[in-house]
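Duplicate of #3305? Posting structure anyway:
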């Protein structure tokens, strides 16, 4: 996976590199670049989850066509949880602390935040594997009751994990 921190730093214009030479401004700008990189990473992570949501919606459509409305409704709960997770990822705070805030966000905290957000990609991979199992069960005309329950449980776990994101900033 690309490191968005390197992309943001590499995209600086000549003027921006010149301005970085001003005493005190370089550190400020470096923090802003880290925040921008984290924002890009979160958007990338959200796109990975959106791809899984598209797969989930496709499974629901197939089930509806087969007339299995009970499983469609069960998957709808998972789809709503997944959409909420995507929205939370897209709109999450990017580690900003004002001049007079009690908790200061330093470089180490921004690095921890970036690593945390990067770890969210593993959840998208786990979700994809579970959707593969749901699709496999449907392919052999089994009702994926256990897989759907596991899917909802995984999404609840991902929400709980994401809720700890703020703790990463505080340390």
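Output from current build:
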């Amino acid at each position: 996976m690309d490191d968005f921190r390197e992309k943001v730093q590499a995209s600086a214009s000549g003027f921006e590199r010149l301005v970085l030479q001003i005493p005190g401004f370089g550190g400020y700008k470096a923090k802003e670049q880290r925040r921008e990189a984290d924002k890009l990473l979160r958007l990338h992570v959200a796109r990975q989850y959106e791809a899984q949501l598209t797969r989930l919606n496709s499974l629901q459509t197939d089930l509806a066509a087969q007339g299995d409305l009970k499983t469609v409704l069960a998957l709808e709960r998972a789809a709503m949880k997944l959409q909420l997770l995507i929205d939370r990822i897209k709109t999450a705070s990017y580690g900003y602390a004002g001049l007079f805030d009690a908790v200061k966000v330093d470089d180490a905290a921004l690095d921890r935040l970036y690593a945390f957000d990067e770890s969210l990609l593993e959840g998208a991979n786990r979700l994809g594997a579970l959707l593969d199992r749901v699709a496999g069960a449907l392919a052999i005309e089994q009702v994926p009751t256990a897989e759907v329950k596991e899917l909802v449980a995984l999404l609840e776990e991902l929400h709980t994990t994401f809720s700890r994101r703020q703790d990463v900033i505080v340390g």
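Confirmed duplicate; merging threads. The chain has one domain: 4-170. Residues 63 and 72 are 6 Å apart (CA to CA).
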